[in-house]
């Protein structure tokens, strides 16, 4: 054969070929492919070392597929997808099994992707498909997908989220779908934090205990009831959606093209927003972090550390430990091992021999207790301890003496926080950690064991009783020293304890021993007198009675509302309502700090809002003019507060008396709704009709006149009226300036709307002017003339339109408060007011007086025995009759 070359001749050729290969492979590997790579393809960190492992980019450049080496450590490499401008890792393939060598490869073949160890064993791979893989595609949403020859998706990374979701990705509400944090910044294996979508909520948990839930977050709004099927994130916010796609809970966020929701290795859920997915511009705002308070993170200060606003410390009898947390200073071991407790797992309820407790001091709170119901309610601190002692999984307990609530700490000990939320009752919150003293674990003959078990038990018991007695006595002494009556109250409580955990079962109307879990701090009348300096400074008078300024022992200011002359029935009803109100927390709702009920006296202690109510700032000529930006902030804040009342609480609350007098302001732009929950609570059975007329004229929806149901949309109407007053800067129906201004200013100071007088001749009705302005497309002229045009024209238009939508005569066609808030923020599409639903404003404006405060006549509602409401129109309503008298209890 003449063509056959002799072997020695082939050798140099092979060598050249080999050299060529060596040169070619890195050259080929070093180039980043765009959108697709096709089999057979190989990548390793070494092959793509020039691009730091990046081997594939999406078309717009927003995302990259990479052999990722987080933190620059050289022994853990992952197949990952990064958001390229921010270098955020949004997905990891082999988080549990990292590649341990930079030369180790990942391969794309017709059967899928496999990630290999240096010796060639696959440590991670995609499942087997019936059809061959034609390509691997990374799209501009960040989804890495395997496609077949017809471009159908065989497998995609969006179905297997790790610790991150990006816009357009959804997380179903199934047990198998959850986000798990990374263990650390450079170790992407599963850490201990979880994000789950449950049937009702979005929750963050650590070692099985919940530390945050969306529905409890002030920034969320609930749109409707229903079962959550999935979580989705997109350009306008985060949504929990029902199976039909309807939104159940949402967080509206500023418009953005891309959002990345990441559960950090520290347990914090961070949402970053990017105006453009592939631009390197910085995120559009600081973003959204949950929980918003750093101390609410389970390990904010390490195990058993104490998180305070000033930083991390250790509880009194604890010292810093080597692992970054705290440990008992006396060297006792904690947590006690489960085996030593349950006697090899058999006797589950036998008391442990060598268990004792170390106090955490007063005023401590635990992150897990904020969201979970107490393990036991109504017992005393000893019964709480007994419960912990007999439960092997109990690691410690927290006891709240003001609500008689007992919380057991389970699973794992995290950080504690100093409970600054109820500073008046610091010493009511006690915490104890279960410890095992070091001399335990002795084993011998059965007799020896018995003694070894019995003796410490008795000793421990005696010790616990003594310590308990000392603690309780010194605690009472301290209480008595600071406030005598308080101690008496505690004594009374202890004398007749009730084991009933049932909410109202334990309440006796005639005694002072009202026991309701979750009740806010209860004050004696003497304490109230102390704090208000015997009711010296009166700061207002609402529909219920006078409001006084006061100061708690810790120096924080409060407003004390004396409730008088309204049908507040028994103590039981009162306390039940107080427990509900006291448990509503939202940045835009005035917080109830405590209450007092003694004999016939009923007082409520609220946080103090130093700028008073909105009507002052808005209508009083002597007050500094509210700028347009502030008015927008007030509108949005108040809308959010109301939306929370309507949808955010377990029990839907309709305010029934939305008006500027009930919107309070404080420095720092705080806006809060006051007096909520004082109208009757809406239970499902009574969600229709109210038996007494509530609310205040001028803000009353037309359905108050008809027999139509009073719903949350009734508040929406009133809020619409408030919005118009915010725009115009005066009452919607103003008396004539000559005889109205002075009286208006003085009467609104005591928190009630003056009964209109028949004297006011022609009163111009602003809602009608707003409707006409809308029809003419002239919005800017509607704004408060005192602002002299210093307004944002687009926003004036927006607010007027939203207000008019709120006034729609048909309640069903008014937006919900959540939608109102979204529209005001500009995060939801603006509705167009329907003019034909607003015709009644012309009637109100031209003399006829509806439920709206009239110029020459007014309307009186009466209820006869049969429950039918009669409407009487009265002329010349005397000016001295206040709205309260017309409206009845609010
Ligand atoms: C961003 O993506 C768009 C299309 O998605 C593209 O037109 C634009 O060039 C990209 N910008 C950069 C900086 O890559
Ligand atoms: C490959 O190497 C890993 C350690 O890097 C080892 O655990 C595994 O057993 C090896 N597999 C084979 C088939 O040698
Ligand atoms: C698959 O998608 C690519 C890129 O969009 C396109 O070029 C190709 O023609 C598609 N193949 C089929 C079978 O549709
Ligand atoms: C969250 O998901 C994990 C994993 O499926 C599960 O073990 C845990 O119980 C879930 N937690 C909740 C609160 O649903
Ligand atoms: C985001 O999703 C919600 C709920 O599905 C939807 O109402 C909204 O229009 C979406 N926003 C964008 C920008 O797609
Ligand atoms: C605590 O309550 C139990 C009954 O539940 C009672 O036997 C015990 O005496 C009470 N202890 C104190 C200190 O009041
Ligand atoms: C310990 O208490 C928890 C509730 O806090 C309970 O779920 C568990 O069953 C208890 N264990 C025993 C052994 O009683």
Please give the alpha-carbon distance between the first and last residues. 111 Å
Helix proportion of residues, in percent? 10-25%
Task: Give the biggest beta sheet.
Answer: 6 strands, mixed
* CATH hierarchy: architecture of the largest domain: Orthogonal Bundle
How many beta strands in the DSSP annotation?
A: 47
Number of domains: 5
**What percent of residues are in strands?**
15-25%
The rounded Rg comes to 33 Å
CATH topology of the largest domain: Transferase(Phosphotransferase), domain 1
Architecture overview:
With 890 residues, the chain is an alpha+beta fold. It folds into five domains: 30-159, Agglutinin, subunit A (Orthogonal Prism), CATH 2.90.10.10; 166-292, Bulb-type lectin domain (Agglutinin, subunit A); 340-437, 3-Layer(bba) Sandwich (Hepatocyte Growth Factor), CATH 3.50.4; 499-608, Phosphorylase Kinase, domain 1 (2-Layer Sandwich); 613-887, Transferase(Phosphotransferase) domain 1 (Transferase(Phosphotransferase), domain 1, Orthogonal Bundle), CATH 1.10.510.10. It has 16 helices and 47 strands. The strands form twelve sheets. Strands 38-42-43-41-40-39 form a six-stranded mixed sheet, with helices on both faces. Helix 4 (446-482) packs antiparallel against helix 5 (484-495). The longest helix is centred in the middle third of the chain and has 37 residues, at 446-482. The chain is flat, with a radius of gyration of 33 Å. It starts with 6 loop residues before the first helix and ends with a helix. The site of one 2-acetamido-2-deoxy-beta-D-glucopyranose (NAG) has 7 residues, from strand 17 and strand 18. The site of one 2-acetamido-2-deoxy-beta-D-glucopyranose has 6 residues, from strand 22.
């Amino acid at each position: 054969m003449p063509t056959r070359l002799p072997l020695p001749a082939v050798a140099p050729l092979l060598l050249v070929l080999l050299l060529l290969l060596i040169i070619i492979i890195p050259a080929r590997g070093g180039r980043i492919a765009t959108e697709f790579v096709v089999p057979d393809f190989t990548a390793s960190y070494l092959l793509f070392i020039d691009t730091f492992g990046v081997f594939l980019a999406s078309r717009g450049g927003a995302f990259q597929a990479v052999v990722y080496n987080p933190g620059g450590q050289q022994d853990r490499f992952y197949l990952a997808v990064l958001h390229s401008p921010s270098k955020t890792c949004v997905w990891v393939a082999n988080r549990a099994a990292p590649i341990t060598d930079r030369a180790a490869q990942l391969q794309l073949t017709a059967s899928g992707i496999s990630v290999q160890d240096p010796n060639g064993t696959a440590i991670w791979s995609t499942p087997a498909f019936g059809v061959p893989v034609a390509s691997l595609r990374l799209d501009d949403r960040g989804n890495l997908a395997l496609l077949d020859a017809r471009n159908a998706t065989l497998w995609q990374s969006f179905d297997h989220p790790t610790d991150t979701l990006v816009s357009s990705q959804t997380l179903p509400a199934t047990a198998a779908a959850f986000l798990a944090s990374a263990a650390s910044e450079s170790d992407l294996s599963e850490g201990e934090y979880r994000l789950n979508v449950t049937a009702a909520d979005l929750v963050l948990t650590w070692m099985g205990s919940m530390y945050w839930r969306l529905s409890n977050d002030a920034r969320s709004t609930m749109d409707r009831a229903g079962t959550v099927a999935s979580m989705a994130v997109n350009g306008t916010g985060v949504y929990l959606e029902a199976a039909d796609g309807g939104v159940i809970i949402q967080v509206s966020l500023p418009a953005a093209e891309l959002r990345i929701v990441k559960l950090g290795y520290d347990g914090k859920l961070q949402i970053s927003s990017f105006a453009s997915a592939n631009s390197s511009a910085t995120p559009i705002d600081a973003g959204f972090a949950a929980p918003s308070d750093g101390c609410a993170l389970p390990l904010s200060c390490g195990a058993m550390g104490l998180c305070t606003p000033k930083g991390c410390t250790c509880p009194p009898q604890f010292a810093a430990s080597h692992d970054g947390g705290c440990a008992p200073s006396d060297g006792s071991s904690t947590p006690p091992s489960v085996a030593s407790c349950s006697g090899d797992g058999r006797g589950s309820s036998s008391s442990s021999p060598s268990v004792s407790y170390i106090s955490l001091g007063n005023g401590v709170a635990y992150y897990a207790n904020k969201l979970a119901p107490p393990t036991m309610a109504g017992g005393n601190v000893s019964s709480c301890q007994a419960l912990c002692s007999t439960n092997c999984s109990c690691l410690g307990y927290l006891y709240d003496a003001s609500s008689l609530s007992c919380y057991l700490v389970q699973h794992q000990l995290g950080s504690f926080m100093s409970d600054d939320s109820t500073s008046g009752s610091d010493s009511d919150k006690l915490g104890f950690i279960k410890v095992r003293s070091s001399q335990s674990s002795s084993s011998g003959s059965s007799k020896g064991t018995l003694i070894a078990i019995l003796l410490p038990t008795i000793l421990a018991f005696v010790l616990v009783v003594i310590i308990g007695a000392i603690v309780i006595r010194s605690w009472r002494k301290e209480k008595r020293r600071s406030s005598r009556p308080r101690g008496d109250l505690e004594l009374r409580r202890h004398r007749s304890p009730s084991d009933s955990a049932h909410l109202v079962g334990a309440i006796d109307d005639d005694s002072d021993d009202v026991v309701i879990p979750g009740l806010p701090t209860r004050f004696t009348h003497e304490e109230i007198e102390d704090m208000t300096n015997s009711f010296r400074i009166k700061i207002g008078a609402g529909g219920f009675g006078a409001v006084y300024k006061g100061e708690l022992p810790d120096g924080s200011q409060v407003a004390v509302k004396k409730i008088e002359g309204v049908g507040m029935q028994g103590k039981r009803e009162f306390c039940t309502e107080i427990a509900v109100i006291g448990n509503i927390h939202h940045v835009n709702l005035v917080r109830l700090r405590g209450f007092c009920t003694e004999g016939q006296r009923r007082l409520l202690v609220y946080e103090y809002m130093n700028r008073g109510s909105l009507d002052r700032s808005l209508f009083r000529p002597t007050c500094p003019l509210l700028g347009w930006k502030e008015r927008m902030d007030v509108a949005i804040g108040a809308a959010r507060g109301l939306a929370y009342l309507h949808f955010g609480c377990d029990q839907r609350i309709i305010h029934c008396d939305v008006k500027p007098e009930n919107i309070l302001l404080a420095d720092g732009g705080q806006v809060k709704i006051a007096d909520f929950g004082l109208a009757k609570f809406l239970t499902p059975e009574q969600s229709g009709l109210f038996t007494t007329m509530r609310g205040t004229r001028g803000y009353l929806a037309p359905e108050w006149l008809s027999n139509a149901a009073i719903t949350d949309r009734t508040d929406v109407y009133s809020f619409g009226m408030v919005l118009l007053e915010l725009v115009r800067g005066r009452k919607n129906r103003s008396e004539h300036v000559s005889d109205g201004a002075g009286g208006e200013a003085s009467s609104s100071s005591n928190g009630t709307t003056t009964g209109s007088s028949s004297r006011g001749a022609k009163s111009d009705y602003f809602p009608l002017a707003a409707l006409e302005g809308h029809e003419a497309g002239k919005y800017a002229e509607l704004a408060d003339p005192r602002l002299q045009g210093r307004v944002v024209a687009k926003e004036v238009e927006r607010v007027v339109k939203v207000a008019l939508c709120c006034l729609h005569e048909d309640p069903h066609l008014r937006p919900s408060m959540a939608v109102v808030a979204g529209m005001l923020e500009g995060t939801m599409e603006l509705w167009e007011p329907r003019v034909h639903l607003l015709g009644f404003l012309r009637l109100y404006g031209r003399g006829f007086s509806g439920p709206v405060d009239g110029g020459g006549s007014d309307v009186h509602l009466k209820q006869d025995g049969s429950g039918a409401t009669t409407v009487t129109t009265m002329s010349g309503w005397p000016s001295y009759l206040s709205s309260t008298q017309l409206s009845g209890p609010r």
